[in-house]
From TrEMBL:
Catalytic activity, reaction form: sn-glycerol 3-phosphate + NAD(+) = dihydroxyacetone phosphate + NADH + H(+)
Lineage summary: Eukaryota, Fungi, Dikarya, Ascomycota, Pezizomycotina
Name this protein carries in UniProt: Glycerol-3-phosphate dehydrogenase [NAD(+)]
Domain of life, per lineage: Eukaryota
Record domain Glycerol-3-phosphate dehydrogenase NAD-dependent C-terminal: where: 255-400
């Protein structure tokens, strides 16, 4: 029976945790949508910024007013509505509010979008634990995994378990600068609405109560607090309205494992493709590496998450499309190619060429390989193993074709 509501309807407040190249782009598109759906979302979108001092570049139209003095990045974003360091030359909607306080940025938000390099997520979760709404829900746009001892964990599961909330994943063939310039692309969002958030036909929350099935298909230890009735139901339709733009086509699915792991592991393959091209081989060699990389990706998903991964996910934007774009035009590919061409390490290139941006492939390779070694199965993943060897200087790019020889 319908439960009479004793309080006024509420709107979802949205926070983007992170403000790099992709974090700022997602804040922009989400803020456009909160303006378009004022019945569902509060208009202002909080964006947590890891504070730093920046000097406005001399070719920026804001340089004349701001001068050469270093200024806080949050002040610059809120004054000029531009992230001059991580997403220069892209005007942001004025309802993107840069906030240097992590705890204040997430306060009272029912939707938390995590979007920062994966190596920082542990520290971020530690800081916000206990400071978020108990019924907040998350979407992780982070491409990576967390590895502890011999356990590999999806970032969205790590966030969910650490904060006691449910968290889905967004991943796709998405180059931030293209989307910021409103060049069309697709993306994939994986979200399994927890039973306690599913509204029955009579408007009540679903009856299944507190727990939900995690990405391994097991009943989670996390006791969820349901999203209160006063909010619009936090299901696929609302998430679609939050992320879909005319230039950003969203496909909603339920395979959180496939979406998350394809997004993480393709960064290892992108490094391999950059090495290949830096060495002087071209597209035909890269497609061989992409094919092998996708096989190892699917094998990894099926070996460690057999209960829930769906092979169809690899035909979504988060699957093959992301593999192709990452191996032909994204940062991990571009800068690993540069490292081979210049004969310097990838870490050195990250330090000198990326102006604070991160190559997720370096840490993902190390983490995935340490997990595979702990299990003693590293030889079943020859391409991933070779990439680790190249990063460490123990394997040569010229020997990659040996991996493809049939015995
Ligand atoms: N850039 C893209 O085109 C793109 C597209 C899709 C997905 N992604 C994924 O999005 C995620 C975020 O990447 P990005 O491109 O927005 O970041 P980025 O590499 O552009 O920027 C690095 C960010 O890390 C922040 N940072 C530095 N030190 C920090 C610390 N100690 N603690 C917290 N934050 C710190 C910086 O302030 C900056 O915001 C990554 O997992 C990436 O793989 C990126
Ligand atoms: O620039 P990269 O290598 O971090 O990749 C960006 C996106 O993940 C491509 O889909």
């Amino acid at each position: 029976m319908a439960r009479p509501s004793d309080s006024a309807p509420r709107k979802h407040k949205v926070t983007v945790v992170g403000s790099g190249n992709w974090g700022t782009t997602v804040a922009k598109l989400v803020a456009e949508n909160t303006q378009e759906h004022p019945d569902i979302f509060e208009e202002d979108v909080q964006m947590w910024v890891y504070e730093e001092n920046v000097t406005i570049p001399s070719d920026s139209p804001h340089h004349a007013a701001a001068g050469d003095q270093p200024r806080k990045l949050t002040e610059v974003i809120n004054t000029y509505h531009e992230n001059v360091k991580y997403l220069p030359k892209i005007p942001l909607p004025p309802n993107v509010v840069a906030n240097p306080s992590l705890v204040d940025a997430v306060k009272d938000s029912s939707i938390l979008i995590f979007n920062l390099p994966h190596e920082f997520i542990g520290n971020v979760c530690k800081q916000i634990k206990g400071h978020i709404l108990p019924y907040a829900r998350g979407i992780s746009c982070i491409k990576g995994v967390t590895v502890t001892e011999d356990k590999v964990e999806l970032i969205c599961d790590y966030i969910g378990e650490t904060l006691g909330i449910y968290c889905g994943a967004l991943s796709g063939a998405n180059i931030a600068n293209e989307i910021a310039n409103e060049l069309w692309c697709e993306t994939t969002i994986a979200y399994n609405t927890p039973p306690c958030d599913q509204r029955g036909k009579d408007g009540e929350n679903g009856a299944n109560g507190d727990h939900y099935r995690d990405s391994r298909g097991q009943i989670s230890k996390t006791q969820l607090t349901p999203v209160p009735q006063e909010y619009p139901p936090l299901e696929h339709d609302v998430l679609y309205k939050l992320f879909n733009r005319p230039y950003f086509t969203v496909s909603m699915v339920s395979d959180v494992v496939g979406v998350s792991l394809a997004g993480a592991l393709k960064n290892i393959v992108a490094l391999a493709c950059g090495f290949i091209e830096g060495h002087g081989w071209n597209m035909t060699a890269k497609t061989a590496v992409m094919r092998r990389g996708m096989l190892e990706t699917i094998q990894f998903c099926q070996e460690f998450f057999p209960e829930t991964v769906k092979e169809m996910t690899f035909w979504e934007s988060a699957g093959w499309s992301d593999m192709i774009v990452s191996c032909t035009s994204a940062r991990n590919w571009r800068y690993s190619k540069m490292a081979v061409e210049r004969g310097v390490s990838l870490q050195e290139i990250e330090r000198t060429e990326l102006n604070g941006q991160k190559l997720q492939g370096i840490s993902t390779t190390k983490e995935v390989m340490s997990f595979l070694k702990a299990r003693g199965v590293q030889d079943k993943y020859p391409l991933f193993k070779a990439v680790e060897g190249i990063v460490d200087g123990t394997f040569e790019v010229k020997d990659i074709p040996v991996l493809f020889r049939h015995q």
